[in-house]
Every structure is written in C-alpha cells, then in structure tokens.
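Task: sequence design from structure.
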C-alpha cells in the first residue's frame, strides 16, 4: 500500500489587505500603523520574519482563501511606533482554517506548489514578453512619456508570469485569479489574452492620435 504525499502545513500570521495581491519573487513595501499589526510585526521579527498576505474585497469585505507568504527583508521603526517594512513574496498558500482572530489573524495554511510544465514554456514566455513590450511602447507613444521595462525583467517563464501579474493595475480580482492558478502555462496564456486586448485597444487609440495630429 502506497502512502499519500505529505502536505506541508503550518500556522501563519495573516495580514489581509484591500485589493493587494502579492506574488512569489515580487517585493511589497508596507506602512504598518494599526496597533494589532505592529504587535504582529514585532512578534514575527523575533521568529522567521514571515507572514501571509491575503487580498480583501473592498466592496463586501470578503477575504481571499489563497494568498502569498511574505518575508520581511528590511524594516525601520518610526518614533511613534509605526513601521516601514519591505517584504518579498515567497510561497503561495491556501488557508485551511483560522486558529486565532485576536490580536491578529493566524491561519492554518498549506503550501501550494506549481504544477510541473508538460512542455517547454520558453517560446510562450517570449511571445508574452513581446506583447508586454508592445503595450509599453504604445503606452509611451500615447502619453508622450519615456516608459521602459526594467533591465532585470525575468526571463524564466514562471518568474515572468509572476512579474506581469504583479504589475497589472486596478484589476485585483484578475490578479487574484492569476495567483490561484497552479499552472504557469495557464497563467501565461491568460496574461497573453489580457495583453493582446490591451495592445489592440492602445493600437486603435494610437491610430486616432496620429490621424488627429495629421489634421492639426
């Protein structure tokens, strides 16, 4: 009789944040001012410096069930007790149950692993990266601003998928859906759809801009 694989489970302090979705490998700066979260930060700074970030729906107050573990890599205490911290996303997790609510939430969580790819995702990643560059180029043209991608843009498919997802703005629900995907290919495919739609929209606006500029 074969034994089932063990699931890594642990208790994790939780920090719900409105419309904030953290992804693995991505930084998240935080200004901590609420007393209960100051207590939490002081506690975890004496242990492994890790806590979970969960997205909160600002409309109905619902807290997502899937989040990302954050590790504090730098912090500064302010004179009035507030804290400025810089965190880096680590593993994704799913909340199994809440074990404590006060003074801050603590959950029993299981780590979520990415499914291994069935094929080489580098060609797909290159296609998605080109779509991203097209969007940046068109955005720069339409706003008359010099917009550039960072030189250290990830070149590995999974890390690129996390980078793109973390830099989508104003679409927290979409980001949450991308975080919950356990397949890099599915995440890149969805990002390809988003970027293609954005590129087409920007391209149409660019044509209109050129037309009006010619009329002037």
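Answer:
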């Amino acid at each position: 009789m074969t034994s089932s694989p063990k699931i890594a489970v642990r208790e994790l302090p939780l920090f719900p944040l409105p419309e904030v979705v953290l992804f693995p490998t991505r930084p998240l700066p935080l200004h901590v001012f609420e007393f209960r979260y100051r207590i939490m930060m002081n506690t975890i700074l004496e242990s492994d410096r890790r806590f979970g970030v969960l997205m909160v729906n600002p409309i109905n107050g619902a807290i997502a069930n899937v989040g990302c573990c954050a590790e504090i890599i730098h912090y500064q205490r302010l004179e009035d007790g507030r804290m400025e911290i810089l965190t880096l996303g680590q593993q994704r997790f799913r909340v199994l149950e809440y074990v404590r609510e006060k003074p801050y939430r603590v959950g029993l969580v299981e780590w979520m692993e990415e499914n291994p790819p069935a094929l080489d995702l580098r060609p797909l990643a290159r296609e998605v990266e080109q779509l991203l560059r097209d969007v940046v180029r068109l955005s720069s043209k339409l706003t008359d601003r010099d917009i550039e991608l960072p030189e250290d843009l990830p070149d590995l498919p999974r890390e690129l998928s996390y980078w793109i997802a973390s830099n989508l703005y104003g679409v927290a629900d979409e980001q949450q859906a991308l975080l919950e995907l356990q397949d890099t290919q599915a995440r890149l495919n969805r990002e390809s759809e988003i970027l293609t739609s954005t590129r087409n929209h920007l391209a149409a606006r660019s044509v209109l801009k050129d037309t009006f500029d010619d009329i002037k």
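Residues 119-212 form one domain.
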